[in-house]
Design goal:
- It is a single chain.
- With 151 residues, the chain is an alpha+beta fold.
- The chain has 2 domains: 41 residues, Orthogonal Bundle (Arc Repressor Mutant, subunit A), CATH 1.10.10.10; 80 residues, Alpha-Beta Plaits (2-Layer Sandwich), CATH 3.30.70.920.
- Helices cover 35% and strands 20% of the residues.
- The protein is built from 5 helices and 4 strands.
- It has a 4-stranded antiparallel sheet with strand order 2-3-1-4.
- Strand 2 and strand 3 form a beta hairpin.
- Helix 2 packs across helix 3.
- It starts with 6 loop residues before the first helix and ends in a 5-residue tail after the last strand.
């Protein structure tokens, strides 16, 4: 079932996207809506699973992980030497366990999975891709794109 967002919900969501650490009172002040309305709506948005989590945006440079890369993964669903086939989400979950992997998304088109990776340097990125990700059962081919700048 689709939940219909109204203008108040949209205002609250926009503020939380930019300022996930704002208190209910700060959001109320910014939107000019009553504190109780904000509190009720946030609880409802969470209950309806529209707001699944509130997160932080880290400065990768300051935490020693300046390399951001996206790896396109093509999978082979057949297990070598067996009649067993792998599921796309199983492979994604195994890739997600690799240290440095931030997110794994199932895709359509020529790429089966898109993997977001953070690394300290290109050498570490190479280790993640060639020594860890490519060893995951079902990973056939990878193509790595390094982010030059975020805007």
């Amino acid at each position: 079932m689709t939940y219909k967002l109204d203008d108040k919900d949209k205002k609250i969501i926009e503020i939380l996207k930019e300022h996930g650490d704002f208190t209910t009172r700060q959001i109320a002040k910014k939107t000019l809506l009553p504190f109780t309305t904000i509190n009720f709506r946030i609880r409802k948005l969470k209950k309806e699973k529209i707001i699944r989590k509130v997160t932080i945006d880290l400065d990768r440079e300051k935490i020693g992980l300046p390399i951001l890369a996206f790896i396109s993964v093509t999978v082979d669903y057949k297990v070598a030497g067996s009649s067993k086939t792998l599921e796309q989400d199983e492979i994604a979950k195994d890739i997600k366990k690799v240290l440095g992997v931030q997110e794994v998304m199932l895709m359509t088109g020529g790429t089966d999975l898109l993997v977001k990776v953070l690394a300290a340097d290109v050498k570490e990125l190479n280790e993640i891709v060639t020594k860890k990700m490519r060893k995951v059962a079902g990973v056939d081919k990878t193509q790595t794109s390094i982010v030059l700048q975020e805007v």
